[in-house]
Every structure is written in C-alpha cells, then in structure tokens.
C-alpha cells in the first residue's frame, strides 16, 4: 500500500510531510512564546512598582504608573509582538494548507503541484524575515531604582530583572530556514503523474498532430 502511494515523487511527498510537521510544531512553539510574553507583562509591572520613586519627581500615583509603563519593555512592545505573532501564525497556517493541497494532488496522481511551490518558498522566506525581526525586537531587561538600608544609612542602586526567554523564537527561526531549504529541494525533486489534465491534453494534441 505504501509503495503505491510513494511510487512517484517520493522525495517531494516526504519533504512536504516534513513541512507540515514542522509548521505545526512552529505554531505550537509560537503559542508557548506568546503565553510567556503576555504572562510576563503583569509580573514586570508589579516588579517595577516595587522600586524607589523620588517623591519630588513622582508626586502622584499616576506619575508612578506612567513611569512604570514606560520602563516596562515588554509592555511597550506588546502591539509589535501581537502583530508579528498573528502574521507568523497565519503564514504557517497558509503553508500547511498549501502543503496539504500539494500532497493531495500528488497522492491522487492528478498533478505535481509545481504551481504551488513558488508561493510556499516565498512564504517561508517571509516567515524567516519576520521571525528574525521578532527576535531582534525581544524586550530587554527591565530596570528600576531600589533602596536598601545599611547601619541606618539608606543607599540606592540599580536593580535589573532578567529578560524574557525567547528560546522558542530561535527554534522557529532555524526551523523556518530549514523549511525554506527543503521547500526548494522539494521543488527540484521530480517524478511523474498519470492523471494530470494538462499532460493528458498535451498528449492528445500531439497524437492529433501526428
């Protein structure tokens, strides 16, 4: 049964299946990263609120709140992150759809799906670029002024909250590049189909001409 399914365009079919798998994994990884990003914002804001704010400069709670939000790097990048997250999730979903349609055409022996590969390759190139910017715009460490007392003397120092982990983003970046490469390889992997309408039409025309 499997030998019949993979009797032609074997490499192309296998690579397309890999693209579907990697795209699904990348969607899951981006979802995990998104959950961590949004969970980070309230934690970062609360941490900044616990810092020291000079009463002469920050005389009201509103001024302190404004300063906290300005210094929360994750909060400041929330719309940028959301936009790129939506774009990436949508792009990966389209890649899965294109790959599934290609696999259907190949397994049904109706077409080699050649016309879909340019779109697939362009999409993965686009995904790689967007993921690169997503990582480049990673929120930096949040900073606050803290105070501590030693022998009755108050001292001030700069405290820093470690930046959020973007491990999933790096995995998606390398995975999207790998998917781009295997898309190109899949496009260059040839075989034959027996139910292709265009090929049948061309074959009939050749017979009539002869």
Write a compact overview of the structure shown.
The chain crosses the membrane at residues 14-39, 79-106, 115-137, 169-186. The chain is mainly alpha-helical and 210 residues long.
Q: What kind of oligomer do you see? A: single chain
Structural class by sheet pairing and helices: mainly alpha
Strand order of the largest sheet: 1-2
β-strand amount: 5-15%
Give the overall pLDDT as a whole number.
83
Low-pLDDT windows of residues:
1-6, 192-208
Coarse morphology: rod-shaped
Radius of gyration using CA atoms only: 27 Å
Helix percentage range: 55-70%
Instruction: Give helix and strand order, one letter per element, not per position.
Output: HHHHHHEEHH
Q: State the helix count.
A: 8
Give the beta-strand count: 2
